[in-house]
Amino acid sequence: MSSIILLRPDKAGDLVKTLPALRALIEKVPDIKIHLIVSLANESLLKYEPQVSYSVLPSSWEKIPFDDLKLKLSLELNRFSFYSGVNLLCDPFPIVENLLNAITADKKFSVTSDTLSSDIWPLTFKRSSPKERDESLNIAEILGQALSIELLSTTHNALRAPQLGDEDTLEAARSLGEKTGNWIGICPFAGTNQRTHPLAKWKTFIKSMEYFSKYEKIILLGAPSDHESLEEIKKRIGHSPHLTLAFPSCFRALGAYLKRCDQVIAVDSGPLHLSLALGIPSLGFLSGGDHKRWFSQTSVQDKIVPRGIWDRFPSTAEMCWHFYRWEKRLSKLKKTL
Q1: Half-sphere exposure of 189 (CA within 13 A, CB side)
Q2: pLDDT tens readout for residues 50-76
Q3: What pLDDT is stored for residue 178 in this prediction?
Q4: Helix 270-277 to helix 12-28 angle, to the nearest 10 degrees?
């Protein structure tokens, strides 16, 4: 079991939830060599992870013909010899099973599904499903089952935050300037439409925040593709000395921006997972779904709103109410310190 290959070709938030299981595995097997197949969205998180190498899939890899994808991976991985290959996705995805078929390993493992090929060993959960259980523990269970190692207890206590680089800290400092007063970071967008709340709600909510704000700086964070939408929010608020737009160069660098904030507000997305992993007081506005699975590891300084009362997206009034309740809680916590 000296060298293994793991598949994590999805969102950055999924890799954030994977890091504790990887670190638990390294603690259990100190001489293990881990190689990951990752996406363009999440590869920056692995740069400073010890004993971990990785290959990055091209954009829209799902559309590449199987034979071409297999050839590309063969050329990329020909210097390796893998004992095991494990698909780390805890739900069946035929396209990722197909990716597992394209790599070479002595044994291959994936969660059981109707489309699993005969040469891939099926993995099952003791609780029959990954639902309503922390995703890091789900990942640890399938990884431990594939490698015949108990990882759950070690994963539970493992560090959750990614390792940042000096260049990330310098980028955030240059972009945001000298830290004075309280700063709050807001990440209003997710990678999928079903998790991205209507822009009009954010315009009204952030306008309300800015009007009553005690923050020296309100930082709206997004990817370059979010620039137009963030400018719309800025235009709605008008000229404000408090408001700043920021576009980190990569997802790992986003962590350095968030660390300069005293609090963070985000939707069901990678930035919310990152903020929680970094231990920053976080308010999460979700849109339904299994919040216990993805957001069970929160502390008293965090508040997760699973959905709205009348709609899966909380209304602007609900967002404001939860925000001010969260602020009061944080104020009480500060007084007790």
Answers
A1: 15
A2: 899 999 999 899 999 999 999 999 999
A3: 94
A4: 40
**Residues forming beta bridges with residue 263, ordered by sequence position:** 184
- In the chain, domain spans: 3-156, 167-336
Q: What is the CATH number of domain 3-156?
A: 3.40.50.2000
What are the CB-based long-range contacts (under 8 Å, 24+) for 200-203? 201/313, 201/314, 201/315, 201/316, 201/319, 202/233, 203/232, 203/233, 203/236, 203/237
Residue 290 has pLDDT above 60, yes or no: yes
Please, what is the average pLDDT of the chain? Answer: 94
Pair of tokens at residue 41 = 């969205």
Residue 304's SS3 state is: strand
Look at residue 125 in the predicted model and tell me its pLDDT.
94
Is 50 within 8 Å of 20 (Cβ atoms)?
no
**pTM exceeding 0.90:** yes
Residue 213 pLDDT greater than 80, yes or no: no
Token representation of residue 146: 């594939």
**Which fold would CATH assign to domain 167-336?**
Rossmann fold (3.40.50)
What six digits make up the tokens of 24? 């638990």
Beta-carbon contacts of 183 under 8 Å, excluding residues fewer than 6 positions away, are: 176, 215, 216, 217, 218, 219, 260, 261, 262
